[in-house]
Specification:
- By secondary structure, the protein is an alpha/beta fold.
- Helices cover 34% and strands 16% of the residues.
- The chain is built from 13 helices and 13 strands.
- The strands form 2 sheets. Strands 8-9-7-10-6-11-12-13 form an 8-stranded mixed beta sheet, sandwiched between helices. It has a 5-stranded parallel beta sheet with strand order 2-1-3-4-5, sandwiched between helices.
- Strand 4, helix 3 and strand 5 form a beta-alpha-beta unit.
- Helix 5 packs across helix 13, helix 7 packs across helix 8 and helix 8 packs parallel to helix 9.
- 43% of the residues are buried.
Length: 380
Amino acid sequence: MAENILIVTEDEELLDDLLRLCAAAGTGADVAHGAPTSGVSWASWGGAVSWERAPLILVGDDCARGPGLGGEVPSGPCGALRRPGVLLVGRDLDDSGVWERGARIGAEGVVVLPDAESWLTGRIADAAEEIGQPALTVGVFGGRGGAGASTLACALAVTAARAGRRTMLIDGDPLGGGIDVLLGGEGTEGLRWPAFAESRGRVAGAALEESLPRLHDLTVLSWDRGDSVLIPADAMKSVLSAARRRGGVVVVDLPRRIDETVTEALVQLDLGLAVVPAELRAVAAAHRMVSRVRMVVRDLRVVVRTPGGPGGERRYGPGLDEDEVARLLELPLAGELPWESGLLEDIDHGIPPGHGKSGALARFCRAFWDQALSGGEVAA
């Protein structure tokens, strides 16, 4: 596919505007000064090759008024190949004929400037990045402090990356100490959250990915060890949107509080996981959090931690097993997560959660991704 989009217009003022929007989107453009005219073969028209290859075509309304782009097949005297990714760009909101002209050239939409400049800039940037299926985005939060949400978020990301999926792990908890520490990469070069605190509008997905630390075959956006603990809501929206446009999977480690910034993250989740130990007090604490999260996240499930901790008993007490925890929280059960022996020691030595293929975390995460990425229900 061609790197540049294609602009077709003889309107110099419109051309200047479209080139300006392309520059704002960080991409170049090929320009065809006018559509093919009557009696001119399609192959001899200067824009024919770009028309077939460009990721996006912007046709000025001035060039949609004649017969040149209204044909059905590319082999006719002046007929354009019908293809996706064609937009008709005009300036007159009151011109009802623009919609008919858009349909005649096979445009997927009509854009009227200057009103739609912001939208069109984003659409140009998306085309330049060759946007496909957005990333499956999973958020993880703890039902109570110390439930193991950050550990599970890391393990999910590590497991996805090990399976060959493009993976980004985003630390949404500024008071968590930095999720890069769990991955043993606090000293790895790359940008952290404070560098994106002033982000507004559209962030380029490729530039974001390239700027972040890469650990264990995944990309990580974490906090540094500075004093900054604020992510503006606009910055979360921009950064997470950019991450999702890259495809693959995105895992977000979320704090146990709801503010405007966390809400921006929740809105973009495809699936939320509440990690809740099988303890009555933990269930009571989780209920408050769950009641607020479920108002935003359309698919929210519970992961039940077996009781006792890494060195304690792993048997459930009477009347409070994983099914009962799910029932009390009125959530689907995503699965049971036993404590994994040696996990804390591994983290101290820079070995990330989920790294051991035979461990409880890795087994849970493999089963989770197999189900979630296949579109099926995650098995309990």
